[in-house]
From TrEMBL:
Pfam families: HTH_DNAJC9 (PF23302)
GO terms for cellular component: cytoplasm; nucleus
Protein name, per record: DnaJ subfamily C member 9
DNAJC9 HTH domain residues: 1-47
Gene this chain is encoded by: Dnajc9_0
InterPro entries xref list: HTH_DNAJC9 (IPR056453), J_domain-containing_protein (IPR052594)
A molecular-function term among this protein's GO annotations: heat shock protein binding
């Protein structure tokens, strides 16, 4: 899922449930192979991915506010 979220244009962590549902359907229909890294991904790994996104978002906001502060001063 990390690879998918990194490489699909314009997607966010909010798209993960939708992608998961699509992929599980394809696996069920045997349209794509079943990989343990996807089907047996731990909750800890999923939570880690969400934390990385929220921390990245906070640092991005911080950078944006620093730029704004520099412009108005």
């Amino acid at each position: 899922m990390d690879y998918i979220l990194t490489n699909v244009l314009c997607c966010t962590i909010d798209d993960e449930p939708r992608f998961t549902k699509i992929l599980q359907g394809w696996i069920k229909e045997k349209e794509v192979p079943k990989f343990d890294s996807f089907t047996k991904e731990s909750k800890k790994k999923k939570e880690s991915r969400k934390r990385k996104v929220s921390v990245g978002h906070l640092s991005e906001l911080s950078e944006q506010s620093n730029c704004y502060f520099r412009i108005i001063n």
